Structure to design on (790 residues):
């Protein structure tokens, strides 16, 4: 067995054990096509390294014969600790997972400012990691990997942030800076991409090879899964939806350009209209309440936002023809964008063929779910490092 | 060697021989990682089947030793005949290729009508195939496969046409209908997809894994290559660009919807403006000439078309972040869309990061190049059938 074959065997077997939950060795051989002898060798290594463990076969799962007691293999949760964070303007949400992906702890921290110097950003999150670990009597140094989701334009494989509303400067090698200051591998990605990873790994996208996730918060984000893989574009700038243009020379966007979708559907865009067109001094909650009460100006503002959003979604369908679109966000607050008339308007603006349009589902995510997505991304990287024997054994 | 291994070996070796042009057996083993013994066995089969041939080593290509004369392997052009057609409103363009991809003949036929019943469409193209084959003293029955590019929405793997401006009805199993009437496998796809296949196979996309082709004729088409593969979407309705919306409730499009990009940049859209807004009775050539002469109304019409086109392109860049965008069409006629100010306007509307924007190149295609794309698609299918031993040996 060459080094490359051994690596591929380890990767395939660990992935299959993870997928199965609990599985006998003989089924591993069948499902992966790897010989029984090689399965025995590799799983012995994985057991010795503490990445997997043997558990007694659950009764009924497979007929047991005589001889030695039958066992299944499973991922050993205690093998590693993995953290994930979602950083928003006002808060940080974090989760701590074990190697099985079981959530051990969570933490929500309110921030006193929205924009940070990169080093301060790293130190702030390092402190949060200390608190997160301490909440279950562990230490930051026991954590093997940390996934971080932020808004902005991120080249994830390099850990490079072209721009983020959370950072006070552009073009930051945030991954390496954080790794040096926090003392563990840090995997940074655009937050909407991490939602797509989470939907693929343990959400509504598990059974779909091609789907799009649209996230709605202060901005509009997107993650694209094509052929079961996240699509990032060639510079890491792909899957940008909020700044696609829906009107030539249209409304001014915070990005400095005109006609961006966000300039019609984001919080600030709604309030701009409410304040200047109507003279009313709304905040967002007030505007939403006024619309629910049937106030014509408020209704008009939200309805146009919905129609612009529908048009943007229709363009995505025309371009990608996905199986599924997942709208992920805080359900109650963005009801006007999730409304049935918005989805209906989208369906009217796609190319009409005699087959059903893509399914559209609304998936309410709390910030902890975003953090779980970030942790899931880090778990993939930690698993890969463990397969390659590149990490220190934290068990 | 299992049947599956043998099939994969045949596929890999034929592909490598095609890529290399001429190649010694020993290099085949090195480049594919297939053992020398297996290369010998499989190439002997391919030689016996007439799919490849031996040619004397060109001097200087590799040091020759003593012993039997050194030979290279190459694809045997005479092994198969493959045809491709591009069907437009006014004409059919066709090419005939040999198994090496060398063009043996071409044909351009003017059509007396733009819309056809599916059976008439098949018979018309069957007649064209007779003429194409006869032009080099061959017969239609000697052709192994036929690729057809048409405008419209096509689910290529099924040969199913949801809608095409060339057909008098919707939802046609055009591939099977044509196969039955013409007597050979027929591979139908959207014409812009075939341009993307051609750019990938023998055009400007050969060295790029992720690029977009935008075609401009009477309509605006798109082909997307992601990870070296054509991306078709899940229903075959993907990569639709001309009917993405650039204006909410905007100009009426021929498709019946409003605000489509085509409703601002297609021929009919330009003439609609010229006729109704200015009172002038232009045809397209007249409008373009007037714009070149600096006539303000004509200039205004073309400039807005350019700005809308730039906005649509910017949206594609924001979504895909491709390495390369290829604008393919009849150069002279659509100069106003290929203009440097259009590309500059596109660059201003993409997400700004401190890395170069995607390269944009203009590739002038005649209709025969579109037909070559269709033939290239058929050549892939014929090759695969030959590898699998599924076709009658036409040699």
């Amino acid at each position: 067995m060459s080094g490359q074959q051994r690596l591929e065997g380890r990767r395939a077997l660990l992935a299959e054990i993870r997928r199965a939950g609990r599985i006998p060795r003989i089924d591993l051989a069948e499902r992966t096509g790897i010989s029984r002898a090689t399965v025995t060798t590799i799983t012995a290594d994985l057991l010795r390294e503490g990445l997997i463990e043997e558990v007694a076969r659950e009764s009924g799962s497979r007929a047991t014969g005589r001889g030695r007691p039958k066992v299944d293999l499973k991922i050993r949760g205690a093998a590693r600790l993995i953290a994930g964070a979602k950083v928003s303007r006002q808060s940080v949400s974090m989760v701590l997972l074990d190697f099985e992906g079981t959530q051990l702890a969570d933490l929500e921290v309110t921030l006193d400012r929205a924009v940070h110097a990169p080093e301060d950003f790293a130190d702030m999150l390092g402190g949060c990691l200390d608190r997160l670990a301490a909440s279950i009597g562990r230490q930051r140094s026991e954590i093997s990997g940390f996934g971080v989701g932020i808004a902005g334009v991120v080249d994830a494989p390099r850990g490079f942030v072209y721009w983020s509303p959370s950072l006070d400067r552009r073009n930051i090698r945030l991954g390496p800076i954080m790794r040096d200051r926090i003392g563990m591998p840090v995997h940074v990605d655009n937050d909407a991409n991490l939602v797509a990873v989470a939907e693929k790994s343990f959400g509504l996208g598990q059974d779909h090879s091609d789907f799009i996730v649209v996230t709605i918060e202060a901005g509009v984000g997107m993650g694209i899964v094509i052929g079961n893989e996240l699509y990032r574009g060639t510079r890491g700038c792909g899957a940008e939806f909020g700044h696609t243009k829906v009107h030539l020379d249209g409304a001014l966007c915070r990005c400095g350009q005109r006609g961006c979708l966000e300039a019609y559907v984001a919080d600030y865009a709604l309030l701009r209209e409410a304040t200047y067109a109507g003279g009313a001094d709304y905040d967002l909650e007030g505007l939403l309440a006024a619309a629910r009460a049937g106030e014509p100006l408020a209704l008009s503002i939200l309805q146009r936002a919905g129609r612009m959003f529908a048009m943007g979604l229709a363009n995505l369908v025309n371009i990608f023809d996905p199986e599924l679109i997942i709208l992920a966000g805080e359900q109650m607050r963005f009801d006007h964008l999730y409304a049935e008339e918005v989805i209906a308007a989208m369906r009217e603006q796609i190319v009409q063929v005699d087959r059903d349009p893509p399914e559209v589902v609304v998936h309410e995510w709390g910030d902890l779910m975003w953090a779980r997505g970030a942790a899931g991304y880090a778990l993939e990287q930690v698993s890969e490092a463990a397969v390659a024997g590149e990490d220190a054994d934290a068990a």
